[in-house]
Amino acid sequence: ADDPSLANPLQRMERLSTGWFGVIMEFEGVVVETSEETHRQAWLQVADEFRFRKPLGQSLRRIKGVRDEVVVSRIFGWTHNPSVARQVAQRKAELYETLMGGRQLAAMLETRPFLETLKRYSIPVALATPLSESKVKDGLQRHNLAQYFDAVVTAEDSGSAEVEFYYAYAASKIQRPPIRCVVVGESNTSVEAAHELGMKCVVVTGTNPVFDFTGADLVVRNLSQLSFMNMKRLFAEES
User: Fold this and answer.
1) Which H/E stretch holds residue 104?
2) Which of 33, 85, 128, 216 has the most neighbouring CB atoms within 10 Å?
3) Rounded to the nearest 5 degrees, what angle is found at the Cα of 196, between the Cα atoms of 76 and 34?
């Protein structure tokens, strides 16, 4: 985290302290409640409509945090034609909205207090999600949470299929090197992508078994269990 090009020694010392880091949060399952079952139903329906083979449980567990077109082509392997993948993804999004029936995802009860803590300690926060910008910003405004995020990275920002792109771009937007970022996610996809970039990863398990996420740097049931000190300690072993 040190930057020898900085002329101000106090700035260099601040960067070396364990309190100098940024947070990258996912949207569903972290900021707002998850709609995992509704996504699953939409994928099964779209498989029926397009006469694709139905995805198995193992494949469905790998789709969290991944853009729908990438799910179609890479995870389910339904087609490698980009235009067809976009068409299938669009239809899945329509089915998802129909199944939701106008219901909006509620903010997690612990979200606002957690964001208030980060604000109090001047920790920059980015939101990184494969969902559309309009959907995410509408959700943030509806729950009055937009002011807590210094950057929002959505599907429109990505020129890449990789989850790592969202995290790396988010880190650049909040001006923190990857090794000084903590991803707060909800899946092993989050863990793998964060570690690939040298970031730390905290998984919010919700109702999922804690032992499913042994690769994470820290595992919590909800954001009320994630304190500023806990996040500082993630950087305590840096040489």
Assistant:
1) none
2) 128
3) 55
| Pairing assessment for the beta strands 125-128 and 218-220 based on DSSP bridges | unpaired
- Dihedral of CA atoms 65, 67, 72, 76 in degrees, nearest 10, equals -20
Single-letter amino acid, residue 203: V
pLDDT digits (tens, 9 = 90+) for 115-147: 999 999 999 999 999 888 888 999 999 999 999
- DSSP of 107-176, one letter per residue? BPTTHHHHHHHHHHTT--EEEE-SS-HHHHHHHHHHTT-GGG-SEEE-GGG-SSS-HHHHHHHHHHHTT-
HSE-CB at 130 with a 13 A cutoff on CA atoms is 21
* Number of Cβ atoms within 10 Å of the Cβ of 81: 12
